[in-house]
Specification:
The protein has 259 residues and is an alpha+beta fold. The protein is built from eleven helices and six strands. It has a six-stranded antiparallel sheet, with helices on both faces.
């Protein structure tokens, strides 16, 4: 594991020119995909994930994007939250050990992951060899964004320095996007999402959104149209969310959220 430091001395280079487009996409569903496309220009990364970490609780998934149409990174992110986040080498930097507003960046190779199941399921099974993680403390949480490489056995090329140097701005954008996206459909949705996050901090963003829309009275078909996902995906997210909440029906969900 190589810690790059709090202020990597590298020029923004072409990355700075991408910032206006990222800012324009804040709060929109295409922001994560746009950020991923920008990151690939500089790092040739296979996937990007972002999480919000608190103290001694499982992280919350902000987004996950990868090459191709199959949402592999989101599936792996769910596995990570459910089983493996406690074994992440980056956990040494927590809200308690990072100064407010400080930003750190580190490179982590798959071979450095000590936990065998974590290493196998989240790296080797999908042929990921290393990752770059940028972390920034915001209040009582730490936001992380991870850039994964999936080919070769080398560390990231020098292009990743531009991402590291822009870490403060990049994570500020991610935090702002998360806040705006939660409020995009109005205060009622935002209140439901916050209540669900309180009930289950580890629940991934899409599962939260599905549950919030269920509480608002949307049928599964309408949720699929609103979120731009398939009906089967909606049903899968609902089943997983209910399992996390230890409930089995819409009525139970309503009682939890509205009580």
């Amino acid at each position: 594991m190589i810690e790059i430091g709090s202020s990597p001395r590298a020029p923004w280079g072409g990355f700075q020119a991408e910032m206006p487009d990222l800012i324009a996409a804040l709060g929109r569903p295409d922001f994560p995909r746009r950020l991923f496309q920008v990151a690939r220009k500089f790092t040739d990364c296979h996937s990007v994930t972002s999480f919000a970490f608190g103290t001694a609780r499982s992280p919350r998934l902000l987004f996950a994007e990868n090459v191709g149409d199959v949402p592999v990174s989101r599936q792996i992110a769910d596995e990570y939250i459910a089983h493996y986040w406690r074994f992440d080498p980056a956990n040494g930097l927590t809200p308690d050990t990072m100064r407010a507003g400080s930003c750190r960046a580190m490179l982590i190779g798959a071979d450095e992951i000590a936990h065998p199941s974590y290493r196998q399921h989240c790296y080797r099974a999908i042929k990921l060899v290393n990752r770059m993680t940028i972390m920034r403390r915001a209040g009582d949480s730490v936001i992380r964004v991870n850039f994964y490489r999936g080919r070769g056995n080398r560390a990231f090329d020098h292009g990743v320095d531009a991402i590291a140097a822009a870490g403060d701005a990049l994570i500020a954008l991610i935090a702002r996007h998360d806040a705006w996206a939660a409020k995009a459909d109005g205060g009622e949705d935002f209140e439901y999402l916050e209540r669900l996050r309180y009930l289950c901090p580890s629940m991934p963003r899409r599962q939260l959104e599905v549950c919030a829309l269920i509480v608002r009275g949307f049928f599964s078909e309408a949720i699929a149209l609103k979120l731009g996902i398939s009906l089967n995906t909606v049903l899968t997210f609902r089943r997983r969310a209910y399992a996390r909440l230890r409930i089995s029906s819409q009525n139970e969900l309503m009682r939890l959220v509205l009580s």
